[in-house]
Every structure is written in structure tokens, then in C-alpha cells.
């Protein structure tokens, strides 16, 4: 079986090592859907209270939210690439099993003809 994944886009790498769907295994915890967190009510902050501390906190929160979104997107992309790879591998293995069954059937027929001609082995 010759199943080679296409080179994945850099968005799937996420780190120093390139993403290889043949090697990566996801734990049950990673494959479990993430619960949808209830968002806190938005609290309107009056303009006069938006000081440097407020904007610093907002900036850090926005950066953390972006990292979280990017990490989730990366994981979802890796899972979909791995699933596609496994589907292709499964199809190839099914073809291989079907060919092996046909070959086994052919050998059984040859053996049956031999036994009919020369007696049981």
C-alpha cells in the first residue's frame, strides 16, 4: 500500500515538526467535543473608566482569545487531515483485503482441483 499524504499547508504545522497524519495520534480527550462555554454578560465600561490598565487588560485578553482560536482551528484542521488520511488508508486496505480474498479463492480452487485429481492431501 502506497499512501502518502499531500504536503500539508503550514497552518497545520503549529510547531517545529511538520504535521504528519501517519504519525499523529489524538487522545480520546483531544477528540471529545469542547463544551460551549456560556459567555459572561458584557459590562459596559464608561469612557472615563477606560484607563491604561483597562486597555492593557483588553489587549492581553484579545491576544489570549486569538491564541485560543488559532489553537482550536489548528487542532480541528489536524483532525480533519488525519480523518481524510485514515479514510484513504482504509479504502486502500479494503482493496488489499479484497485482492487477498480473491487470491485465496483462486488457491482454494487450485487445491480442490489437485485433490480431485490426486486425492486428499
UniProtKB/TrEMBL annotation:
Pfam families in alphabetical order: bZIP_2 (PF07716)
Q: Which GO terms describe its molecular function?
A: DNA-binding transcription factor activity, RNA polymerase II-specific; RNA polymerase II cis-regulatory region sequence-specific DNA binding
Stretches with biased composition (Pro residues): 1-10
**Protein name (Swiss-Prot/TrEMBL):** D-box binding PAR bZIP transcription factor
Q: To which species is this protein native? A: Catharus ustulatus (Russet-backed thrush)
InterPro entries in UniProt: bZIP (IPR004827), bZIP_sf (IPR046347), PAR_bZIP (IPR040223)
Keyword tags: Coiled coil, DNA-binding, Nucleus, Transcription, Transcription regulation
Query: Do the record's keywords include Iron?
Result: no
Recorded coiled-coil stretches: 83-117
Q: Where does it live in the cell?
A: Nucleus
Q: Which CDD domains match?
A: bZIP_HLF
Instruction: Extract the ranges annotated as region (Disordered).
Output: 1-20, 28-73
Amino acid at each position: 500500500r502506497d499512501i502518502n499524504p499531500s504536503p500539508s499547508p503550514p497552518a497545520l504545522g503549529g510547531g517545529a515538526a511538520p504535521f504528519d497524519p501517519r504519525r499523529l495520534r489524538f487522545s480520546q480527550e483531544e477528540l471529545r467535543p469542547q463544551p460551549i462555554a456560556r459567555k459572561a454578560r458584557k459590562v459596559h465600561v464608561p469612557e472615563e473608566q477606560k484607563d491604561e490598565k483597562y486597555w492593557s487588560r483588553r489587549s492581553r485578553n484579545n491576544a489570549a482569545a486569538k491564541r485560543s482560536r488559532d489553537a482550536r482551528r489548528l487542532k480541528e484542521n489536524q483532525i480533519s487531515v488525519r480523518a481524510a488520511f485514515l479514510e484513504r488508508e482504509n479504502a486502500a486496505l479494503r482493496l488489499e483485503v479484497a485482492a487477498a480474498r480473491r487470491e485465496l479463492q483462486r488457491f482454494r480452487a487450485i487445491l480442490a482441483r489437485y485433490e480431485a485429481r490426486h486425492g486428499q492431501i
